[in-house]
Amino acid sequence: MSSLRAYILTRALMVIPTVLILLTVVFFILRILPGDPIAAMVGQKVPPEVLEKMREEAGLNKPLILQYVDYLLNIFKGDLGKSMIWGKRPVIDEIMDRFPATLELTIFGFTFSVLIGLVTGSIAAFKRGSYVDASMRIYSIVAYTLFIPWFGMLLQMIFGIYLGIFPIGGRIDPGLEPERLTGLYVVDSLLTLNFQALGSALLHLFLPSLTLGIVLSGAYTRLVRNNLIEVLNQDFILAYRARGIRNSKIAFHAMKNAFIPVITLMGLQFAILLAGAVLTETTFSWPGMGTFLLERIQYRDYTSVQGAIVFYALFVAIISLVVDVIYALVDPRIRY
Amino acid sequence: MSSEVNNLATRFLKLLIPEAEGRWMVISGLAIVFIVVFMAIFAPFIAPYDPTKSTGDILKPPSSKHLMGTDNLGRDIFSRVVYGSRVVLLVVFSASLLSMSIGIPLGLISGYFGGKLDRVLSMLMDSMYAFPSLILAIAIAAVLGPSILNAMIAISVVYVPTYFRMIRGQTLSVKSRLFVEAARAVGASNSKIMLKYILPNLVPTIVVVFSLSVADAILTEAGLSFLGFIVTAPTPDWGYDLSAGKPYLPAGYWWMITFPGMMVMLLALGFALIGEGLSEVYAPRRER
Asked: What is the tens place of the pLDDT at every residue in A262-287?
């Protein structure tokens, strides 16, 4: 077996303990923390027999250890329970309705952050020590501390309300929704050649993903700058220069080498991206996982809240696996 | 050992030298933090109006009478911004102290003793660290119910892994140094080695991690507050005030959102600058 395949297999097996730990932490928070989750969520005004019934529905009246086993078994069967409101739909179906919106937002936000980070980081590296470099450094710190709802609202105010270029909320103009294939509006409208829907979806995506992208770009700016400077000082660059290879070509090779560590950062940034998406979705009335979670907390739908958090945990574990595998594919030194 | 401490002292002193890298960042960060802390302590003397009572002017733009304008209930936004610094500082500082008092000892023990305990703790902390912090805080705050105390608990849980990981890693590298071995050779107990020989060497790391994670915690606090998990009307808090101003944005009342959100950014920026600057003072970049 090739060492790459061995690496991927081992790494995939390591997801199991990570997922188990995350699920246990979620269980602990939702069931064992002092206080009754149902009572805390429903409030004190509900009569005790109704509370008892709700506990039963959520499976909270059994001994803890049985609850834990049930909880794990159901998750592995892909069953996240049924919503306590909204016609008792399976929670997993509700999540699947909302998840593509978050995925679309995070993909675009992520793309913006990497692109902005690459451009600003390379500018800083090639102009190292200058005022441009210093201002890119300040940019990377300030971008990180921008408070997402505030920054999002400023963009809404300028581009949405005063200039009127972009819509300030929602995923698409009402009535234009493309036929659902993947749930990603951009992909669906491309597949069905529905260009009116595509235009509307992209316009709606622009401000929220730019907000998310700028806030997350600071870390990339710094990393790209430092890696690029390190690579530019290496011998092979000097050798290229000695051979009279064009600067633009040297820059290309340097950037290719500087990009490898950036992939690791992508994995680390992913959690921040998801957390940022919750705030971005709230600011831009984006019907994704974040607004789903908050809405269900407000409606006191305990099973949906648990389902959403479990889903986040699984998603994080899978993404970290994917990032590590990509890293191994790109960098042959990464092996067990 | 003493040379390590001296080294630390000279590094602190370096801050006073104009050429020290990162000095301007630390100083401007400290200035911002100082102003906000001053605002929080002397709020009753600084705020011109009662932050929870109407002044009679509704939705008035900034003017000499109302520096930052008034909100939909006629409250003076400047006064609310001044008082709002209290909740965020209280929540973030107590939460950070709590996470430090759990994360640092655990990281020290885990890194020093190694073995099974270390592996279990590391896996637990790494998993928690991988989980989006705001979502974890939302989950905890939702179960405990919205209040200032519960927000503190939620935020403190979220930042334990940050301290743990950093301290554990540093402990691993410090414990292999010669002076630790020497201490062990003369029969110092484990707890003495950890507290007297390793911990002092971690102080620079702790200071840097503290500043950076406080910056992050400020954004988390503001996020929780924005989503309604910390205070209820009429208590002023920046994140909460920002969400209160959101419905008035389309009508052009920009001042309701601009100022509270700007304060969140400034305070987070203050701590981030201190952390970034100090990390440069302690470990100057190789490349300029």
From this structure: 877 887 788 889 999 999 999 999 99
* CA distance between the termini of chain A: 13
Phi and psi at A227, nearest 5°, equal: -65, -45
Let me know the angle formed at the C-alpha of B165 by B163 and B166, rounded to the nearest 5 degrees: 65
Is B128 within 8 Å of B160 (Cβ atoms)? yes
Low-confidence stretches of chain B (pLDDT beneath 70)? 1-21, 283-288
Which of A33, A157, A233 faces B254 most closely, judged by CB atoms? A157
Q: What number is the ipTM of this complex?
A: 0.89
Angle made by CA atoms B132, A121, A125, in degrees to the nearest 5: 145
Contact A293 B130 (CB under 8 A): no
Q: Is B258 within 8 Å of chain A by CB?
A: yes
Note whether A132 and A221 are within 8 A (CB): no
Q: Say what the pLDDT of residue A37 is.
A: 63
A–B interface: beta-carbon pairs under 8 A: 150
pLDDT value at residue B2: 46
Q: Using CB atoms, which residue from A40, A146, A274 is nearest to B135?
A: A274
Interface membership of B120 toward A (CB under 8 Å) = no
Residue B271 phi/psi, 5° resolution?
-70, -40
Q: Which residue matches tokens 């490349």? A: B287
Selected residues 133-192 of chain B with any CB under 8 Å from a CB in chain A: 133-136, 138-140, 142-145
pLDDT digits (tens, 9 = 90+) for A136-172: 999 999 999 999 999 999 999 999 989 989 998 889 8
- Cβ-Cβ contacts under 8 Å for A194 (sequence gap 6 or more): A178, A179, A188
